[in-house]
Amino acid sequence: MIINLLTENYSNIEIKAVNLDSSDLRESLKKPTAEEYSLLGAVYRDKNLNIKSIDCYLKSLSIRESTLGFIHNKTANSYKNLAEAYAQNGSLVNALKYYNKALNIKKILWGEEHPQSASIYSSLANIFFSKKNFEKSHALYKRALKIRRESLGEEDIHTATSYQELASFYANSEEFELALPLFEEAVKIRTELLKMSHPDTAISYNSLAICYYNLFKYQKASDALTIAIEIKELILEQDDPSLLRAKENLKEIKKNISKNRFNFKSFFSNWFK
Question: If we measure between CA atoms, which residue out of 119, 137, 115, 139 comes closest to residue 127?
């Protein structure tokens, strides 16, 4: 029996509690919530325990579908979380499936030109790039950037992400003249908003160095990579592979700074890490 300490404003809650026997109540209290499953899934994903992460996200999704329905922002977020876990696990087909489910809900709730839709366009672009569908990837990167510039403005961290992604697309296609102004915008925004002690700022300077080098602007490449190294030295262990690799790349640039462009492809791909 429940002691009636509730005011009349809480009578509905009291009635529900009275209808639960003690075993039902214990079971209800022990069952994790959708949010708890989602948080646990994120922890597993950060540790690269992808199968466990997927299992938690599936359980979170199941609860949200049954309690919130299909057309709800939290349900869409569960689809997106699941897509990211599948992508990290290398299952691009499942990643595409759940990204598209999330996108359909976001479009209904927020519209096609909303930043939340742009976030999924960006993720889909990454998937299509991995699948070597460069035409779709390019179109989605451009669409995400357009939406973010128009809805969030130029001085926004998500806009910087879109600049960085589209620039990286062009750089990987060896269209460095197209990539350069986009990398420069990403550097500018990230330097202002994230400052000079953030890994994303280091990534943008690192990428900018690639562009300068491949456009024969060797001194600018050296300057940009030096800044990237200075940031990495602040935030990484001194024996971190990324930092050591950047230092080796800087030595190569300095060796060849007064020479003709040398074959950069042997370590080009590592610079994006």
Answer: 137
Pick from 164, 160, 136: nearest CA to 148: 160
- Cβ count near 252 (within 10 Å): 14
Q: Looking at domain 32-132, which CATH architecture does it have?
A: Alpha Horseshoe (1.25)
Give Cβ neighbours of residue 98 (< 8 Å, ≥ 6 apart). Answer: 79, 80, 82, 83, 86
pLDDT per residue rounded down to tens, the chain (273 residues): 333 333 333 334 333 434 445 555 455 557 899 999 999 999 999 999 999 999 999 999 999 999 999 999 999 999 999 999 999 999 999 999 999 999 999 999 999 999 999 999 999 999 999 999 999 999 999 999 999 999 999 999 999 999 999 999 999 999 999 999 999 999 999 999 998 889 999 999 999 999 999 999 999 999 999 999 999 999 999 999 999 999 999 988 888 776 654 444 444 545 444
CA distance 145 to 68: 31
Q: Roughly how many angstroms between the first and final C-alpha of the chain, as a whole number?
A: 61
Cα gap 257→255, rounded to integer Å? 6
Fold of 153-273: 1.25.40
DSSP single-letter state for residue 216? T
Burial of 24 (0-12, 13-18, 19+ CB in 10 A): exposed
Report how far residue 22's alpha carbon sits from residue 240's, in angstroms, rounded to the nearest whole number: 54
What residue ranges of the chain are covered by domains with CATH 1.25.40.10? 32-132, 153-273
**Number of residues that this document lists for the chain:** 273
